[in-house]
């Protein structure tokens, strides 16, 4: 049987692993307290894109293949790498539950947000509980370097969210601020989980860095598209409120690009679109400019960069599947 055929079969096995991963997460969240369990598992219902665990598992397999791990070694390493995929999805979901408190958002993945259903206090606690259990899983992997790398993600998430709450930079620093925030709030999780699975495969520092960069640029590309979809897509398609960023006072790539040709946006950015009519006016400026087109180009550039680093690994079905996920992330509609 041809090698590629064998690998493609491995990828459908990966799909099964992904649904097993959700079961494992629900299992790990079990507790005597039924209310805590209900809240904590609310968003692990298979409605999400599961992009992070997908990417982490594919990349882990691509790296193991690149390193030519023996099948015995591979089964030990894979087990720990799956736990990293679980932790990544748990950190992500906990941060979304908290995010819906910060953003006062009622809708997540097509259903009422946890904050909407149970109130802000319980939603915060549910996120904390998920983080607590994920810390336990992380510690039990038993590799301090992996703990350090994934702890950094939590620090970055908080910093990213803080950066988003206040924009005091001058016009020239705004884009750098946006990119740094985007790294912190989205790309760090992709980058550091990618690095963690490379560490577990005992990859060289150079290969760990390659994994990190693949995750980083995929994450940046993904978030820029998210910011585009906030303007282009609908609440129905997204399963979360569309046109939300301006209302929250947040200026993302499309607005920042648009401000080059519509300088009146600058004052609105500084006052966080607070005056009556600002949100509508800014929305029109973005649509009348090439802000969305330029943002799409930026997302494509990040995607190219991710693919460039991915090409440093030996060709495998995993690597090809990752490449198509990267392309898909740029052209997605939700
Ligand atoms: C979604 O962004 C939010 C994030 C990617 C991160 C949120 C992080 C925190 C609230 C800090 C707390 C962190 C931890 C570890 C619990 P968005 O609001 O732009 O996207 P949305 O449209 O999906 O709401
Ligand atoms: Mg939000
Ligand atoms: Mg937010």
Automatic annotation (TrEMBL):
Gene Ontology CC: one annotated term: transferase complex
Keywords, ordered alphabetically? Isoprene biosynthesis, Magnesium, Metal-binding, Transferase
Molecular-function GO terms, alphabetical? metal ion binding; prenyltransferase activity
Which biological process annotations from GO are given for this protein?
isoprenoid biosynthetic process; pheromone biosynthetic process; ubiquinone biosynthetic process
Cofactor(s) this protein requires: Mg(2+)
Please indicate if the UniProt record lists Transferase as a keyword: yes
Q: What family does the database annotate?
A: Belongs to the FPP/GGPP synthase family.
Official protein name in the record: Uncharacterized protein
Organism from which the protein derives: Darwinula stevensoni
Lineage, top ranks = Eukaryota, Metazoa, Ecdysozoa, Arthropoda, Crustacea
């Amino acid at each position: 049987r041809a090698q590629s055929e064998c690998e493609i079969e491995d990828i459908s096995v990966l799909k099964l692993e992904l649904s097993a991963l959700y079961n494992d997460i629900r299992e790990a969240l079990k507790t005597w307290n039924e209310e805590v369990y209900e809240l904590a598992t609310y968003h692990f219902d298979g409605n999400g894109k599961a992009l992070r665990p997908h990417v982490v598992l594919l990349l882990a397999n691509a790296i193991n293949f690149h390193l030519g791990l023996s099948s015995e070694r591979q089964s030990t390493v894979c087990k720990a790498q799956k736990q990293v995929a679980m932790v990544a999805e748990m950190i992500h979901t906990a941060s979304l539950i908290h995010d819906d408190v910060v953003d006062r958002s009622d809708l997540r993945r097509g259903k009422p947000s946890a904050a909407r259903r149970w109130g802000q206090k319980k939603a915060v606690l549910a996120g904390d509980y998920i983080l607590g259990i994920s810390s336990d899983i992380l510690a039990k992997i038993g590799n301090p370097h992996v703990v350090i790398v994934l702890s950094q993600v939590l620090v970055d998430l908080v910093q990213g969210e803080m950066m988003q709450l206040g924009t005091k930079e001058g016009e020239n620093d705004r884009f750098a601020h946006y990119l740094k925030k985007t790294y912190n709030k989205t790309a760090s999780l992709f980058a550091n989980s990618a690095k963690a699975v490379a560490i577990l495969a005992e990859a060289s520092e150079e290969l760990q860095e390659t994994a990190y960069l693949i995750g980083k640029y995929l994450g940046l590309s993904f978030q820029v598209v998210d910011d585009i979809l906030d303007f282009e897509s609908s609440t129905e398609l997204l399963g979360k409120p569309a046109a939300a960023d301006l209302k929250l006072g947040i200026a993302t790539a499309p607005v920042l690009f648009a401000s080059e040709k519509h300088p009146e946006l600058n004052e609105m950015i500084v006052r966080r679109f607070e005056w009556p009519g600002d949100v509508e006016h800014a929305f029109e400026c973005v649509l009348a400019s090439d802000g969305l087109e330029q943002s799409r180009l930026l997302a494509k550039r990040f995607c190219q960069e991710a693919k460039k680093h991915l090409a440093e690994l030996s060709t495998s079905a995993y690597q090809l599947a990752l490449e198509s996920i990267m392309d898909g992330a740029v052209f997605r509609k939700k």
